[in-house]
Amino acid sequence: MVYDILNKIKSILDANEQINTVTYGDIFEVDLNKQSIFPLAHIMLGSATISNQTITHTVTVMCMDVVDVAKTDARDEAEPFYGIDNEQDVLNTQLYVMNDLIQNLKKGDPYMDGFQLEGDPSCEPFTDRFENMVAGWGADLTIVTKNKVSICG
Fold first, then answer.
1. Is residue 151 part of a domain?
2. Distance between CA atoms of residues 74 and 81, nearest Å
């Protein structure tokens, strides 16, 4: 069941043209200084609640990209609202990736295969979470699958 969930999420993220690399595990084990891996989606497995009929899985997904900073002063910009970097662009494209993942889990092939996203996930932006200049979105997804193990007594 774990393989199935991870592979479903990975396949959706791999299909998105806004993502270069999909990784799994401890985010601090990923070499975030390697510029060629961005834009990056990262998957972390959380808890699983087992009931008689279903297994409820918590999976955290993070979508991120590098923020490019210009070497000019923001006060010299014609439109200072946008700053001297592409942070707003990164947040825009990576929220699109997250939305695409969520919509696929709600209505796409994974849903038809019995992977049901529970509720409406809340996406949280981040801009200063890591050493290098990356920004993006993270969300905890709750995915319910059928419990295929049954004990007849």
1. no
2. 9
